[in-house]
Design brief:
396 residues, alpha/beta, Rossmann fold, five-stranded mixed sheet, 23% strand, globular
Length: 396
């Protein structure tokens, strides 16, 4: 490899780095390389690569004046050093540099270039007018052994069918649990792609993963669920999200993908005088896509039910809006257990508010029943005991 001091350098951000890693790991096939101008135009026209669906061109067009000057100066065959976070991330042998329209690119991903749309302005700011393509090699690449983990899990239980779910679990609530159980009833192995990284306004990946693993290890049969991190970068952000989810799941070895009916990517579009789902646009990707019903808590049925089967109407139903449940947690409140399992609430609150209580031992002995002075008390344990008091009914 030529020294980066001699090569021209291109600066990229985390999202571009994640996308390049996904491509190099073979997880975006049929896309296998950065596309040149001719290939990009072909994908825009057909939404296909070798007869298989791919929603938009896979290109590298980073923003910035320095990047623009470098891209303008590149010649075919030149070696380019790609930097991420101040370190050498990859080297690329230039094949072509060509112009793109960032606004058109945004529409290809999101279906709109309206800056009021969530994500559009952020993605627009990171796109430049020049794209570079060519063979690239990652430097000091982190190992991704998730394919092997999934294959080992299949062999362990001799799985005939492997189903995937893509979720943020932000936080993991009762409707998520019901969905996971439903999928497991109709498959041998479930692969949960847990989105990573998420935005700063959400729970960290580590907290969400811990919650999910707690549920899996304590309330599901063993060896039938695998959790795999999935970088939630910009290419998954738009109305083509389900198509990309299906492609990644297939490349990880799954033959089914299950999504919720309220998934943002299920949005309907008008085509040839009929309403069709985005799923109808998936061609050549051999994976079965299933849409599940939305689950709610009904105060008449007094349990978690499908909206399709519950007769009591919305005024008796509690919907599971993750953002509202998260708001309760971020305010330091314990959500009701019909919304989120108390052990998960306790775990999340103890991470969001470490060392929250001035005198935890005093609180324990003042308001909770305790067995002895030598008990070891934790904030997580305190939340669990507090929830028991909330659930006491003799004085309510």
């Amino acid at each position: 490899m030529t020294s980066s001091r001699k090569n021209k350098t291109l600066l990229i951000d985390k999202e571009a780095a994640c996308a390049l890693e996904l491509l190099k790991d073979g997880l975006l096939a049929p896309a296998t390389s950065l596309m040149n101008s001719k290939e990009s135009q072909s994908v825009l026209k057909t939404r296909l690569i070798n007869g298989k669906t791919f929603p938009f061109p896979f290109i590298l067009a980073p923003s910035g004046k320095t990047n623009a000057l470098v891209l303008e100066s590149l010649k075919e065959g030149e070696e380019l050093t790609i930097l991420y976070d101040g370190k050498v991330f990859a080297t690329l042998i230039v094949k072509e540099v060509f112009h793109i329209n960032p606004s058109d690119r945004i529409k290809q991903i999101y279906g709109t270039d309206d800056l009021n749309h969530p994500g559009v302005s952020a993605t627009m700011s990171r796109l430049g007018p020049l794209s570079v393509c060519g063979e690239y090699e990652l430097v000091n690449k982190s190992s991704n052994n998730n394919k092997e983990i999934i294959e080992d899990a299949k062999k362990r239980i001799n799985a005939k069918h492997t189903t995937s779910l893509v979720m943020a679990a932000n936080p993991l609530h009762r409707a998520h649990e019901r969905l996971i159980r439903q999928v497991l009833e109709n498959t041998d192995l479930l692969v949960i792609f847990l989105l990573k990284p998420y935005t700063e306004s959400n729970l960290s990946y580590e907290i969400r993963k811990e919650s999910l693993e707690f549920f899996i290890n304590n309330f599901l049969t063993k060896n039938h669920v695998v959790v795999v991190p999935l970088d939630n970068n910009y290419i998954f952000a738009g109305f083509n999200e389900i198509i990309l989810d299906a492609i990644v799941a297939k490349n990880y070895g799954c033959d089914r993908l299950t999504i919720g009916s309220n998934h943002a990517g299920v949005g309907m579009f008008y085509d040839a005088n009929s309403n069709k789902s985005i799923i109808d646009r998936v061609v050549g990707i051999d994976i079965e896509i299933t849409i599940t019903n939305e689950y709610v808590y009904c105060d008449k049925c007094t349990t978690l039910v499908s909206k399709k089967t519950c007769p009591h109407g919305q005024h008796h139903q509690i919907s599971y809006h993750a953002d509202s449940i998260l708001e309760l947690l971020e305010l330091g409140l314990l959500p009701p257990t019909i919304l989120i399992r108390k052990e998960i609430s306790a775990q999340i609150l103890s991470k969001l508010f470490p060392n929250r209580f001035k005198n935890l031992e005093k609180l324990y002995y003042d308001i909770l029943p305790v067995e002895g002075l030598l008990e070891k008390h934790t904030e997580k344990g305190f939340y669990l005991e507090l929830m028991k008091l909330y659930q006491t009914t003799s004085l309510t």
